[in-house]
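STRUCTURE:
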């Protein structure tokens, strides 16, 4: 049983490490803040979650310890990293940081334009 747990933990920690490595490569190679933030938040969050979950499983099955700190760490990373990435992207967009030349479509601009039209329609109506 302990050999199976060790293999599961090793695979999880290795997968988390590979995801974090790929994310760092994406962070270096991608062209603008929007795609870099995507790489930094999505795959790093998943990588850290794999590593923390593997650590939690190891201590639970090998030593009989349930670490509330690890569970809180998993919850904290899961909730805060995507929100922080979203806020960075929205702040960059609203402060006028340009998209990469390779970007095909600016969907947020279209959505903001529609929202402004709806606000004007409702202000005329009321």
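SEQUENCE:
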């Amino acid at each position: 049983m302990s050999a199976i747990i060790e293999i599961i933990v090793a695979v999880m920690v290795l997968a988390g490490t590979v995801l974090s490595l790929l994310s760092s490569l994406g962070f270096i190679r991608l062209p603008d803040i929007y795609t870099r933030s995507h790489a930094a938040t999505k795959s790093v969050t998943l990588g850290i979650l794999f590593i923390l979950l593997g650590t939690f499983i190891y201590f639970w099955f090998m030593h009989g310890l349930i670490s509330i700190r690890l569970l809180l760490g998993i919850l904290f990373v899961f909730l805060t990293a995507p929100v922080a990435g979203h806020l960075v992207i929205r702040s960059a967009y609203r402060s006028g940081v340009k998209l990469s030349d390779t970007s095909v479509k600016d969907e947020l601009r279209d959505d903001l334009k529609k929202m402004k039209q709806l606000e004007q329609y409702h202000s005329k109506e009321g």
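REMARK: The two ends are 69 Å apart (CA to CA).
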